[in-house]
Known about the structure:
The protein contains 17 helices and 14 strands. With 474 residues, it is of the alpha+beta class. A hairpin with a 5-residue loop joins β3 (39-43) and β4 (49-54). α10 (295-305) packs across α16 and α11 (321-328) runs antiparallel to α12. The longest helix has 18 residues, at 150-167. The radius of gyration is 25 Å and the shape is globular.
Amino acid sequence: xxxxxxxxxxxxxxxxxxxxxxxxxxxxxxxxxxxxxxxxxxxxxxxxxxxxxxxxxxxxxxxxxxxxxxxxxxxxxxxxxxxxxxxxxxxxxxxxxxxxxxxxxxxxxxxxxxxxxxxxxxxxxxxxxxxxxxxxxxxxxxxxxxxxxxxxxxxxxxxxxxxxxxxxxxxxxxxxxxxxxxxxxxxxxxxxxxxxxxxxxxxxxxxxxxxxxxxxxxxxxxxxxxxxxxxxxxxxxxxxxxxxxxxxxxxxxxxxxxxxxxxxxxxxxxxxxxxxxxxxxxxxxxxxxxxxxxxxxxxxxxxxxxxxxxxxxxxxxxxxxxxxxxxxxxxxxxxxxxxxxxxxxxxxxxxxxxxxxxxxxxxxxxxxxxxxxxxxxxxxxxxxxxxxxxxxxxxxxxxxxxxxxxxxxxxxxxxxxxxxxxxxxxxxxxxxxxxxxxxxxxxxxxxxxxxxxxxxxxxxxxxxxxxxxxxxxx
Length: 474
């Protein structure tokens, strides 16, 4: 959402025609009367959705294609294909060589990027308003005409293998990948985005082109514009460049499986490595989807549990009850509560990092005791604090055309519509402490958990012992 523009009346001393000074009068700050920024959507004949938020004062725009296909749309044998394609997108098309593509972007001073998640693949560009047509032409070229040359595939294979090695050094990434793998065992959502190393080594051009054919279809794509690009102009560009997209692909077994709601499995995975000086532990229950009625209540509950980082100067005063206990007893280096949502499910939990490895049991105990407290003893004050933090976090995250485009694309791809920031504020404002306790009683109290732990974790209790803490009366 573009920032609301406020016009201050900075009145200066005015002089009348007869040279008489007019006394200075201080005016009140008043909002500039501009129409509210709205998200507009249009669906083309082939099913492609075009969505924009036009800001008449913006000098730049972000345009991009959000595709309802990520690693979840793969099979076990092709896991890693979506991410591999993202790498190959900028390596040349039938119209532009890699060098021409890079030079064209460089000459505009634009930024072209892409990323892959479990459920989406995104290609986007940020540029001056006058360069938007050229950016849309580049996007359609890389999406529809990528050459996928064998030489480029082999070069990127090595790049992705090195990237995989780097990811394996990031403990948080490793823990969360394992958390998905154990919570959604043997299901598409449980697979990693990069895929296993053997798949990266074996992926062929045929598998890459098949992924495009089966997933890059108009009914699964949203062209998004944010900033100074008018909706009608982007619709015209979409009609010009993307009218030839296939309307729909055959529903393969992989597609059908990707749309089936995954089963959450209470389980744990532990990788003990005493050369790692910390214990890194993620614990989660089954969370909520993007469109769930409890989506914002889950975020408020997450904010009540809060976050903690021992290295910060305000560590003793980070607001939540759990952070106070953790800091007082030196139980953790940091912790982060999270509510991760997908189209039909999610993970709600906490990620703990501690170098006090003899007190892991205390750390886990107090974290889960806080979860139990949410079911029956939540104060109005902490709910209001959590709501204020959540609203500020959401609104601050929409600072800039790229962030707004991301919000529009993700919401429309996953839920079919975009909630405007003011609507989100109203929903959050309406949440009460009773709603939070009701959510905790249904989603947390005595529920199965998934646990992922890496590092010096000898002191982590057994699954059954930790599971028993999910229904603690105190």
